[in-house]
Amino acid sequence: MTRAVLHVDMDAFYASVEQHDDPSLAGKPLVVGWEGGRGVVAAASYEVRRFGVRSAMPMRTALRLCPHAVCVRPRMARYQEVSHQVFGVFREVTPLVQGLSLDEAYLDVTASQQLLGGPVDIARRIKARVRELTGLSASVGVAPNKLVAKIASDLDKPDGLTVVSAERVREVLDPLSVRRLPGLGRKTGAKVEEAGIRTFGELRSAPDAVLWPLFGRYAAWMRERASGIDDRPVLAEVEDKSLSAEDTFEEDIGEPRTLQRQLARLADLAASRLRKRGLMAGCIGVKIRRGDFTTFTRQRAVAPPACDGRAIGGVAAELLSRWLAGNPGAKLRLLGVVLTELTPASQLGLFEEPKLSGVDAALDEARARFGSRALRRGSTIE
Question: Which of left, alpha, beta for 160 (phi over 0: left; psi -120 to 50: alpha)?
Fold first, then answer.
């Protein structure tokens, strides 16, 4: 049976929940987030996106672009409640559900086809059931693997259903902008375009002489991604396929510099554990718990996957900075670094073990010989 993977992504999830719960907000340019000079946009409705407003944008920038936007504060408990309903729908059709966030997941429906019909029928069933239970719309990508399914789900938003069969992968991907490649990143994407590579097709067919300066030994791996090649399985037990390091503080901490030092220590510890197991992480996240036990998570895909402490710590620090900017004065009782999308290092790039930085190699050697606290990064010390 042909492999079938769905990527389901709820449309403007937080904003759509607010518009559903308060009909007076329907059709209005809506921003979910904290107002004020340091506030950050948590979600933006499609009406406000027409003005250039996007998630993670400073609130002052969003209101400058759309002065008449309506701002509402996030209600995480409500979003989690709706997310629970949505994921219940996913599990009605397959046990192979890999959640990426409250509003996004991969589903492997290969085996479900015998009972529920083809993957397109299953996708339509999911969309209809989600709307019936929550009143919200979802966009679905149907493809032979996770990478292509994720790209497909974003091609016809909102309320889209995009199907990319194995025979049409290159036909669909080749004309797309390289900026649509998950995990490429804004800065790297700009460098790729500066090198004259603007589409998937150009990236797929570019010679090593062009790709090597951009991606180094991951050039072949990036060419495979541009070709739509992805053998990663849908991991139903996400908790068993992740690695983390977290700490609960004796007293709540509100000073940003102290929090960043604590996070740097945890990122270094998580990266060390990752290397010890011979793994790379394709997604880096932070776990944040306030003094009132309200818990938040933020994550970002990275390409190529990483195992070095500086890269992991840098992404984690940025994620925490953005959260702190949107929650000024918050005091935290717990911080954590969560690494997911784990892949054996020997299966990446040119099929060789990753070369560690001198700092990481020294840390690993010292800790192996003299204990976990024998050597520490300066950024983790008071």
Answer: beta
**Among 18, 47, 104, 341, the one annotated catalytic:** 104
Give the separation between CA 238 and CA 217, rounded to whole angstroms: 29
Structure tokens at 344: 């054996």
Fold of 242-380: Dna Ligase; domain 1 (3.30.1490)
Contacts of residue 360, defined as CB under 8 A and 6 or more positions apart, other chains included, come to 271, 275, 308, 309, 310
Determine whether 246 is an active site residue. no
Q: pLDDT of 67-85, one tens digit each?
A: 999 999 989 889 999 999 9
Helix 208-215 vs helix 186-194: crossing angle, to nearest 10 = 150
1-164 CATH, one of 3.40.30.10, 3.30.70.270, 1.10.940.10, 2.30.22.10: 3.30.70.270
Tens digit of pLDDT for each residue in 126-162?
999 999 999 999 999 999 999 999 999 999 999 999 9
Tokens encoding 132: 């019936």
Q: Which residue has the tokens 């966009």?
A: 139
> What CA–CA distances, in Å, run from 189 to 114, 185, 196?
41, 6, 11
